[in-house]
Specification:
Blueprint: H1 2-14, H2 19-35, H3 37-42, H4 58-92, H5 105-108, H6 110-135, H7 142-145
Helix pairs in contact: 2-6, 4-6
């Protein structure tokens, strides 16, 4: 917000737009989003739709949660692989940003790194969910799953 405000003020009052702001703000946005995925999952902050699951018996809901965590981990693995490959291609070809000329693969690695942290958080939750299923069928809330 501060960078964009600075750019707007410079453009409006001095007719000197700051070209680096658009580029830097975009990558900071990626850092904030992907850097906060695991924490948001850990505290149960992701959007949930429980229209159907709220009416399911606890045992079925617990099994469904375990299956959804497995599917989510498979999806994260696929996206992590793809985004890592993209960053490696950018590294191999020596791609740099248009304005600031820094290596583009560095901020590109923020995406798979954030997804990897999310996968670790989901894996911990899955292990705890599986243990809970082994003892008795109950769903482990996200805030308990990481502790």
């Amino acid at each position: 917000m501060l960078l964009i405000s600075f750019d707007v003020l410079m453009r409006y009052f001095f007719e000197r737009p700051q070209l680096f702001v658009d580029e830097l703000a975009s990558f900071l946005e990626v850092l904030v989003i992907f850097g906060g995925l695991a924490y948001t999952f850990r505290v149960g902050g992701h959007v949930r739709v429980d229209l159907l699951t709220g009416r399911m018996p606890p045992a079925a809901r617990a099994w469904l949660r375990a299956v959804c965590l497995l599917v989510g981990l498979a999806f994260l693995g696929t996206v992590m692989w793809t985004t890592t490959q993209s960053a490696l291609v950018a590294y191999r070809y020596g791609r740099v940003s248009t304005v600031m000329l820094y290596p583009i693969w560095v901020p590109m690695l923020v995406i798979p790194a954030g997804l990897a942290l999310m996968a670790v958080a989901m894996l911990i939750t899955l292990v705890r969910q599986a243990r809970a299923l082994g003892r008795h069928a109950r769903e482990v809330p996200p805030e308990e799953a990481i502790r």
